[in-house]
Specification:
The chain is α/β, with parallel strands linked by helices. Helix content is 14%, strand content 25%. Keywords: Acyltransferase, Lipid A biosynthesis, Lipid biosynthesis, Lipid metabolism, Repeat, Transferase.
Length: 352
């Protein structure tokens, strides 16, 4: 069986261009036209590869690397081998990401899995759907009446776009994703299996539970990324909103009427209950649970596996269950550890 490389570099790039992206000067005597043709980890990088390093855990790997060049944080620069060009920058990972995107533009978003242009055989477009030029639609995709899709967007195989949905330009909708009752901005990435715009979980509770019709929408603003198998419910009576530039990982649940601000980061396994608001630049670590009708302030960060059951002030860092400011959380953990240690010593002491 052959072993294909799914992502090969689309271009080569000069060391001078890498240094320019890092906003640093090349060391004296280094040829600015020397070619970088790939990117690789420290352990496997070769003479034409770019690597990066910003974590002390990989100090030994840095010292032994054979990379042609390495983006490196200042505190580790002395460990770069003489055979490797050190490009010293305060944010090596971010620069590495920029160079990687130039080398591998095809890895930036889901592409047509059928390798086709235009509307593929086996796709199902309603006659009243409107597609701008240069939209690609893979086999099995369904696009409903009065849906509108902007130029440069890719609709993956077996994806479903409901009636009246609007999808902007330069978007990528992954295989098997469903989008209904939604307005989607430009350059949005929806990974395979995501569900956007289905019912919110709304019932008038009683001896028998009466379903409450969910008549709102989902608004996804520009440059949002939504991970595989994430679900975003439409609003009950007002809209569920995902703000510009927000990045959502796989397997996240966002309930009806939730409003998420701009440039938030929401990691895998998070559940956000209905009518909660996240202001701009909020970060939720993996498996955070947020109860409904709360407000998490601008720039707040919540540690992974925490449970949030009250409002969180702007700029704060919280953690624990129930979540609290990290200093209080750490004091609590330290106190419990000391009590457990003391209790263990007491049990080990001889009796009588």
């Amino acid at each position: 069986m052959s072993s294909p490389q799914f992502f090969t570099a689309q271009i080569v790039i000069s060391l001078g261009a890498v240094a320019e992206a890092a906003r640093v000067s090349l060391p004296d005597g280094v040829d600015s036209q020397a070619v970088i043709s790939g990117a690789a980890p420290l352990e496997s990088a070769g003479a034409r590869d770019l690597a990066y390093m910003d974590n002390a855990r990989y100090g030994d790997a840095l010292a032994a690397t054979r990379a042609g060049a390495c983006l490196v944080a200042p505190r580790f620069a002395a460990r770069v081998p003489a055979s490797t060009v050190a490009l010293v920058t305060r944010d090596p990972y971010r620069v590495y990401a920029e160079i990687l995107a130039r080398l591998h533009p095809d890895a930036m978003r889901p592409a047509s899995m059928f390798g086709a242009s235009g509307v593929s055989p086996g796709a199902h477009l309603h006659p009243e759907a409107r597609l701008e030029a240069n939209v690609r639609v893979d086999p099995g995709a369904v696009i409903g009446p009065h849906a509108e899709i902007g130029s440069g967007t890719v609709i993956g195989p077996n994806a479903a776009v409901g009636p009246n949905v609007r999808i902007g330009r330069g978007c990528a909708i992954g295989a098997g994703a469903t989008i209904a009752h939604a307005l989607v901005g430009d350059r949005v990435i929806v990974h395979p299996g995501a569900r956007i715009g289905q019912d919110g979980f709304g019932f008038a509770m009683g001896a028998s539970h009466l379903k409450v019709p969910q008549i709102g929408r989902v608004i996804v603003q520009d440059d949002v990324e939504i991970g595989a198998n994430t679900t975003i419910d439409r609003g009950a009576s007002r809209d569920t909103v995902i703000g510009e530039g927000t990045k959502i990982d796989n397997l996240v649940q966002i309930a009806h009427n939730v409003v998420i601000g701009r440039h938030c980061v929401i990691v895998s396994g998070v559940g956000i209950s209905g009518s909660t608001t996240l202001e701009d630049y909020v970060v939720l670590g993996g498996q955070v649970g947020v109860v409904g009708h709360l407000r998490i302030g601008k720039g707040a960060q919540i540690a992974g596996s925490s449970n949030v059951n009250r409002d969180v002030p702007s700029g704060s860092r919280w953690g624990g269950t129930p979540a609290k400011p990290v200093r209080a959380w750490f004091r609590e953990l330290t106190t419990l550890a000391r009590l457990a240690e003391r209790s263990g010593r007491d049990e080990d002491e001889p009796k009588g």
